[in-house]
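FAQ
Q: What does a multi-component entry look like?
A: The components come first, one per line:
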Amino acid sequence: MVRLWLSGGWLAILVLAAIFAPWIAPHDPLAQDLFLERLPPVWIDGAEPGYYLGTDSLGRDVLSRMIYGARIALIVAVLAGGAAALIGSTLGLLAGFYGGWTDRIVGRIIDIWMSFPPVLFAILLVAVLGTGLHSVILAIAIIDWTRFARVIRAETMAQSRMDYVASAVVIGRSRLGTLAAEVLPNVLPTLLVLFSLEMGIAVIVEAILSFVNLSISSDDPTWGGMIAEGRTQIHFAPWVLVVPMVALFLTVLSFSQFGEGLKDRIDPVLR
Amino acid sequence: MADPLLQVRDLHLALPDLNAPRLFGPAPQVGILHGLTFDIPRGATLGIVGESGSGKSTLGRCLVRLLEPTGGTILLNGDDITHASPRDLAAHRRDLQMIFQDPMSSLNPRHSVLRLIADPMRLHGIQDADAKARDMLDRVHLGRRFADRYPHQLSGGQRQRVGIARAVGLSPRFILADEIVSGLDVSTQAQIIRLLEELVADMDLTLAFISHDLSVIRRLCREVIVLRAGQIVEAGATSKIFSAPAHPYTAALQSSIALPELDEGWLLS
Ligand SMILES: Nc1ncnc2c1ncn2[C@@H]1O[C@H](COP(=O)(O)OP(=O)(O)OP(=O)(O)O)[C@@H](O)[C@H]1O
Ligand SMILES: [Mg+2]
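Then the predicted structure of the entire assembly, as tokens:
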């Protein structure tokens, strides 16, 4: 209960910040002012009013960059996580339910996919697809669908052996109808948890790609890019590093906690 | 009255033997049912008895065509359904219902009681399925207030009433009940049996009742077939068979004497 509200609260703040970024960001996230470089956050001496989280080495407002960075983090989380979930769980459901050659083909593809080291795979993909938000999203979906496919396939297989699937045949449900109306609702809680984890993973992967300068253009504010930049300033302006790291941590944690909490809340079997 | 609802002729079933050692090719088959022949007349209450592993459930699953026989024929109302495709079976599904042994596994845990009873009706185009499902809740003496519950919120006996309502709600011609009281305590068993008796009488159902509890069979079933290692060793009126068993196996079952191990010949023949 508490975790649902806490994690949901943080995610709600992020969503609002992302949507209303132009209105709530106190400054232009790209505006540089060399007279205002490395200003500390308001709770440290020497802060300048209006720069709540301080500024970076180019004098850009950290809070404004965080707010615009939330946009990119959330877009990546939802689109990359959603695409990976859609591809992975569709294949996992079909393989687990129909078995036979469907299962053999999907299983083989998963094995091949998983033999690539994921970070290398991501860097390679982005190098091929070119940098930019859409290739980051595509790369994450292309790599991470196997997480869904593996788990959902195993879960679907276990569910398909239950008598309620035999009972669905007896009452005259079609095969596909049985998969959709009987098996899917029982796989959904697992899917929800996986999806919430994947959204957190997507945010981290985007940050890693930004960190190695393979995400979107380095001027655009992303949390990973800010962490990369903050690293070079750690002795003069630690807040430039700490603020995006804390936000990243809270966001990844909130996604997983929110997913777990929501599952407990909406699953009739757990109520 | 004379023409039977189900005619079973020389029914064979073999399944792939997953335990057999093999390197290549398909798994060898292991025979489970070996040429069963019997009729189930309309309105019959047929008991199927036999020791554990004798093939009762397998036979039942062939009758409702959850399994496809590997030999022989099954006629429903004169229609050959032995190898009917899912498409062809669709027309017969409504008439071949089943109540499962374990309602915890056979009732979808994420469907409400109302949905569990109404969905079969909806699938068969029955109008006002929700209203009729609520009526069914009364018929099985559960009451309408259970409509919005989920299976895990019910007791074992209540769950099995939902299983019965789900099957009987379609007013099928034939119902197979496979060990439906074996998971329940004795007083609940008696209630469920009484309910089934009531519904069979009211709705003109034809019932096949699988059980290893002969006292239940004696009470519920007019005819009985005795199965041993996939073959029928005795069949006939319940009263006659239990008062004067012709086969020593039946007598042994009845006195629940430990049965001798089957020799290999039974399985291979
Ligand atoms: N899927 C299967 N593959 C191979 N053998 C099977 C399979 N299902 C059942 N059998 C075998 O078929 C035989 C009959 O099983 P069945 O479940 O029909 O027995 P039963 O009479 O219902 O027993 P019980 O009273 O324990 O329920 C058993 O020897 C069993 O091991
Ligand atoms: Mg059985």
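Q: Is there any commentary attached?
A: Sometimes. For this entry: Residues 169 and 188 of chain A are 21 Å apart (CA to CA).
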